[in-house]
Amino acid sequence: MNQIRAISLSLLLMLLSACQFSENDPPRNLSIANINTGPVANLEQNETFELFYDLDVAGLSDIDVDVHFYLIHNNELVDTQNSQEQTIEDVHQLAIVSLSQLKEGRHALSVQATLPDNLKGGQYQIIAHVDPDNMVIEDIENDNAPSTTNASYANGQYPHADIEVEIQSTHDYELKTLKFGQSALILDAPHVDNGNQFHHADLIGYLVADYSGSALDKVTVKAEVDVNGAWRPLHFWSAEETQYLEQLSYSFKTVLSDQHIGFDIAFNDELSQALYQTFSGQNGAELAFRFTLTDSNGDGDLNSDNNVIEQSIPLYFFEGHTANVGTQNRLANIKLAQSYDKSYGDQSKFSIGVDLSGQLLIVPAGDPGARITAEGNVEAYFFNAQNTLFGISYDGSAYVSGLNTGYSSEMTIFNNVVFEDESYTSKFEKSWTKSWEEEKVLAKANFTIGPIPMSVEAGVDGSLGFELTVGYNAELYANGDLFSVDFGAFGRGGVDLAVASAGVEAEFNLIDNVFSLDSSAGFSLVSTDNATPHIYYALELTDDMDVISGKFGLYAETKGIKWCKKWGIPYPCGSKTTRYDLWLYQTDSVFQKSWTLYSKEGSVNL
């Protein structure tokens, strides 16, 4: 019994000692001791800066905690005599920080923050709220944020940083970058029958433009080329009006900073003739271009000097194919061919490259015959990542002797050969109708939407295929849609936290393209138009293309704090949800056109 009493007494003394120890421990508490922006006091909308803060941890160890930062306009806090609770309207969430495994003591920390682009300017306070969801049990709760119940925060002495947000009183448009979607400009010499329509695309590219201010408006863009020291106007293709115009109209979007303005320019016969007279025999000569942006209303652009951008590109003239002429008993080979190789868009966001080609080769001498080839390729850039989406090729030939008569075809999707067919025989006919529906993730990137960091993966989904008929029986022919591609962009990603959610919003067409081939070459002893044995031929390449239209963006919704005020002191008084949008891309179609790349027919006597 005495032993039991001794043990009980020992346990009681231990409990008393524990109680005595806990009473001497510091109270459990989290608080911000200091907030500052370093040497930076004046900032502009959408500017990124570093925010420094000291976090005190007392009576706690190895804790995980969130810290939220807010921006409040000083006009909300000037009424220091009003004791009625009022809601603060001009408040913005700047950043959300998640900290882990914090030890006891003072922690000197910092975070990157970006000012919103919808501020009205003037003086603002940056304040902090530690553990806004009360996930950490503390003995003192009223110093986690500015408070009217904390005596040490009276008279506005709570930790905060003062900044001045500057807003431009006038607006300013700026042309920042000019990019061509090709490495050189290749024009047909005036004496060459190029076999295509007037609305072909000679020069493709885009401008990156920016806007500062608060009075967005439409602008017009003018393009000129330097011909023998004089600037000559160029014309832009308008998909809406289906004609070429001297000026390109564009409306700025309020939520985009670097805005993308795509253009499609063709050179008319008169201009091509003038360039040929100036640069003939100077293959690779640098041809200078000038683009000028003008405010449609002309109401005081702050700096018109940054509205002009110049750039050069090598110029070449295609002089036509040289016929292979032998003796008088041999005839010249005839080659009809056309290729098209352009890229569209901004590689850091979305870009498409299209490479199309087709040819018809007639061999009238020796073993008379013909050969038809065509191919198309589509490449895409997503966030600077290059990807081959699609490729197809067709090669068909026929000769009177029957040698080397046949066809081959191959299709590649996402770098994998998914279809190939080949047959060589004296006579043949073949029809293909193939289609696929594909989805592929192409790239990943990180962004910050409002205060929320987010990882995004993006790619393409859609359909593709071809429908082609080829054959030979005294006539070699190939006709149909060599390929059709219909790809849109998709995105996945986001966060699903206690304090925020985020995701992707996209209504986006990456490429919608149909490349068609209609060609034939026949061997005839006599016809109604020609009593002499001859070969007749025809080649037509047409394309219907719509590239990069729609919008692609990210959104975030934060479950933040509602802020109120008394006596000019802000304090948390509830919760609210705030939505943020970050549009990466918003544009009408960069390139939208239906046109004939090449069209020609004729005959050669045998």
Automatic annotation (TrEMBL):
Q: Which residues form the signal peptide?
A: 1-22
Q: Which UniProt keywords apply?
A: Plasmid, Signal
Name assigned to this protein: CARDB domain-containing protein
Instruction: Name its species.
Output: Pseudoalteromonas xiamenensis
